[in-house]
Amino acid sequence: MIATQEKDVSGWQLGLLVCLFVSVIVVSIMIVMHRHQSRGLFVQSQKLAKQYNILIAQWSRLKLEQGVVLNDIYVERKAREDLGMRIPKAKNIKMVKE
Known about the structure:
By secondary structure, this protein is mainly alpha-helical. The protein has one domain. It is built from 2 helices and no strands. It is rod-shaped.
């Protein structure tokens, strides 16, 4: 005679098993949601890094342009060409004393 052993699952064991199954499903869904959010944040981070590099390059160009614009020779040339200004001759310079 072959003896068969049937394990009887009690109510609390079944409840625990269902609770663990639901917990695994919930945690799996949360992991998927967090990975999706992480990918989105990574993409946003890459876009901001690209924008940062563009702004740094633009800042460098503006600093170079500012150096050119503030150059004395450039200012004098612009004054001559655009405003028609000239350096006065010595006889045209008058000293004013207070």
